[in-house]
Amino acid sequence: MIVKKEPEQFQNYLSDASNYKGFADSVYIPENEPEIIELLKKFNEQKTKVTIAGNGTGLTGARVPEGGVVISLEKLNRIINLSRKEKFVIVQPAVILKDLQDFVEAENLLYPPDPTERNCFIGATVATNASGARSFKYGPTRNYVVGLRIFLPAGEIISIERGKYFANGLKGHLITAPGKEILFTLPDYYMPHTKNAAGYFCRANMDLIDLFIGSEGTLGVITEVKLKLLDLPKSLLSSIAFFKSEENALDFIDEARSISIRASNNQSRSPSHLNASALEFFDQKALNFLRPDFQNIPGKSEAAVWFEQDYNDNDDSIITNWINLLKKYNCDEDSVWLAINKNEREKFHEFRHAVSWKVNEFIAQRNFKKIGTDVAVPAQNFRQFYSWIKKKIELENLDYVAYGHFGDCHPHLNMLPKDEFEYQKAKQIYAEICAEAVRLKGTISAEHGIGKLKRESLLKMHGEENIRKMAALKLIFDPNKILNIGNIFNENFLERV
Ligand SMILES: Cc1cc2nc3c(=O)[nH]c(=O)nc-3n(C[C@H](O)[C@H](O)[C@H](O)COP(=O)(O)OP(=O)(O)OC[C@H]3O[C@@H](n4cnc5c(N)ncnc54)[C@H](O)[C@@H]3O)c2cc1C
């Protein structure tokens, strides 16, 4: 096991892509499960805080320690087993998402969750219930997790398979590897019907594996993940279309969303055979932000949509029908980029990744913390909500870029403050946007989770009483209060239960 004790050796474990910065005494890099258990037992007895590090691409400070030690799982990076026949793969937590996607694709299989940042660890994507462009059709990471091996802080092990352990109403019951019973009560707060990664997943009679997915490492350390796979579709259409106006692009998305949801729900093909797997939006400011690196962006375009559709036959009418739908919203054929091979599809992915990446770079260069929305609202409220947010930011004269998973009504509006005054203003607007999303029965975090940066917003979303119930639940699994302290709710809540 590698142990880093000198601060200059471990600075890169003290922040993440949000630019939130923390502190720790040392960093441990175990090589196997017995070493993880040994560390957990030791720190549990000493009541030393332990923060679990993934690959540090998180956007909420979730892996950033606020004291104690860091345990990085980076050495547990093996793909353990793939079954082509039963369509599953078992991996250690530090397998990189992109490597897993390529590995299963070579076996003609698909692992659908595709966060824009693919340099993240699978264990962390489970801990945050990450999702991405394809979640529009295929849903978040949760939908593909069928088994987990979890180490509790005292060193006990829970092995849980989907479909085996259910809550009885709100009462949960699990048995650890040494045979210890764990009894707990699930909070019963409202969970939005949008994409959601805000706080513990809790529902009466739920499958108890879902409690750990999205729990941001606060209940246990994930050391093994079993994932469901799908057959790799035979064809994939990927396109970026540039529009003359934002209204045109948003109208196009609205119609494409309705057609695709109908097609997926009916399990039958729409008359046009259209059924998008991804519908991603870029506003004019996002395009301007990208222009220095992508000089072929058509000059007069005011918005763009990146969409994908996978299908299993050689039905060329799909391309024609997409072009017809684009034309209906004033998008000319010569403003449409079509990827004809994997290489070009990767470039489109890079286009989408670049905008998120450049925003993080902008924020880090000015030494602020990221102020980007991760809100989602029900589809019927989305257009009004989106224009309300934009007007609000523009009224305050703040610079911003807007892009994101508009198929899922999930906009990333990132404010770009130039100085401390603007930064404070942006924080105030951010809080108001979250409050409005909650009022519209949406969520304050659809995919990034809460970490340490969004705790205040979660408190407003669920209220103090429910946060106290979450803290009580955590204490059942972590009575000595050592694991990922400060994620989801403030440490004070662990005292007040
Ligand atoms: C440019 C960019 C684009 C992004 N786009 C998306 C996107 O489209 N969708 C999306 O969902 N996210 C996105 N993200 C955020 C990020 O990639 C995800 O949150 C990802 O899941 C984090 O993985 P990581 O390995 O970097 O984890 P880290 O940031 O290191 O950790 C994240 C959390 O997981 C916990 N954790 C890690 N491993 C374990 C484990 N084995 N057991 C228990 N807890 C663990 C950590 O303690 C921490 O709480 C983006 C980030 C960037 C920089």
Account of the 3D structure:
The protein is α+β, with helices and mostly antiparallel strands. The protein folds into two domains: 1-231 and 465-497, Uridine Diphospho-n-acetylenolpyruvylglucosamine Reductase, domain 3, CATH 3.30.465.10; 235-439, Alpha-Beta Plaits (2-Layer Sandwich), CATH 3.30.70.2190. 34% of the residues lie in helices and 20% in strands. It is built from 13 helices and 19 strands. The protein has helices at 33-46, 97-105, 122-128, 135-138, 209-212, 246-266, 284-290, 317-328, 342-365, 379-395, 420-439, 455-477, 492-496, and strands at residues 2-4, 26-29, 50-53, 69-72, 79-83, 88-91, 109-110, 145-151, 157-161, 171-175, 181-185, 221-228, 230-231, 235-243, 278-283, 303-311, 336-339, 400-405, 410-415. The strands form five sheets. The chain has a six-stranded antiparallel β-sheet with strand order 17-14-16-15-18-19, with helices on both faces. It has a five-stranded antiparallel β-sheet with strand order 5-6-12-8-9. Strands 1-2-4-3 form a four-stranded mixed β-sheet, with helices on one face. Helix 7 crosses helix 9 and helix 10 runs antiparallel to helix 11 (420-439). The longest helix is centred in the last third of the chain and has 24 residues, at 342-365. The mean pLDDT is 95. It binds flavin-adenine dinucleotide. Flavin-adenine dinucleotide (FAD) binds at residues 16-17, 52-59, 62-63, 73, 93, 115-117, 120-121, 123-125, 127-128, 130-132, 216-217, 221-222, 353, 356-357, 360, 447-448, 484, 487. Residues 16-17, 52-59, 62-63, 73, 93, 115-117, 120-121, 123-125, 127-128, 130-132, 216-217, 221-222, 353, 356-357, 360, 447-448, 484, 487 line the site of flavin-adenine dinucleotide.
